[in-house]
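To close the section, here is one more complete example, presented without commentary so you can practise reading it yourself. The ligand is nicotinamide-adenine-dinucleotide.
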Amino acid sequence: MLTAATLGTAAVLGATPGIAAEAQPKPAKQNPRDKYPKPPFEPQRQPWPGLASQMKPRPDHGETSYIGSGRLRGRKALITGGDSGMGRAAAIAFAREGADVAINYLPAEEADAREVVDLIHRAGQKAVPLTGDLRSAPFCRQLVDRAVSALGGLDILVCNAARQQSIASILDVTDEEFDQTMKTNIYAPFWMIKAAVPHMEPGSVIIGTTSEQAYDPSPDLYAYAQTKAATMNYVKSLAKQLGAKGIRVNGVAPGPIWTPLQVSGGASQGKLVTFGATTPLGRPGQPVELAGIYVRLAEDDGSFTTGNIYGAGGGQGQP
Ligand code: NAD
Ligand code: MG
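Output:
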């Protein structure tokens, strides 16, 4: 597991609000190439949807390194795929910034989700674990309702869950696989956003996780990549539509990030061993490296940011 000590981060040096910046401990400046594990990685395969706790090395979601400073105090957030990867990094960061957080995940991911619930509690915030499958419209509507009643409202909706399966030829993409990918990545955000908007007051935000795949699709991700282009597109149309209500809508576009999605069918074994090697930084990103982007898009300081896509791609795949 990556620890603050091995990474040399300023993990445990809590910043004190109200103290001049010069008086705060200085976070270490690090070479981004050396900050996290690099390829080659051990070959590994987990049954879908995979667990972060079983990955070698374990991804860094900010467990020991993310430091909050009250940027989301009092906010109420619902994050899909909040058990692992980008969703977990956002959940930890939101909680440490003072938000109460509901997470959705699949029953098979209970072990990862328990860790996130514990981390949210340790940040002193309310955690609402809501298990269930987003490929069902009634479930998506129920999920929003359950989050709203458990949190007492909804200010931040992060549509982050996704299905990605690497399949070399379109001839081998079954109708069922194509349908599951569309249901998870396109229909679920549609169902959830429709259910959430009536609960959202001005100042609320919707964040979609898109991908470098929206701009530069891989040949083996025919189904998945087009859903990420669709995500980018719905972010832009909804931002125009919901601006009148004072609701901002933005997207996050990660490059190759070390998450369970990749080891449970998202990447071929060949690609996994050299994962991230093609980036100018020579390694994959870690989920924590996107945490601050989700916070930025959710907080009031980002009040003029809507219809925008923020990337963290290690130097590749972005426009
Ligand atoms: P991840 O496996 O940690 O997260 C994906 C989550 O989706 C899972 O944890 C699971 O809870 C959820 N999910 C999938 N199908 C579901 C279903 N039917 N019902 C409920 N939940 C379901 O992987 P991640 O890489 O952190 O993925 C998060 C987002 O990041 C996705 O939108 C993905 O497209 C995007 N992304 C990932 C990468 C990468 O390299 N890892 C790159 C670009 C974009
Ligand atoms: Mg997961």
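Once you have examined the tokens, check your reading against these statements. The chain has a mean pLDDT of 94. The chain has one domain: 54-312.
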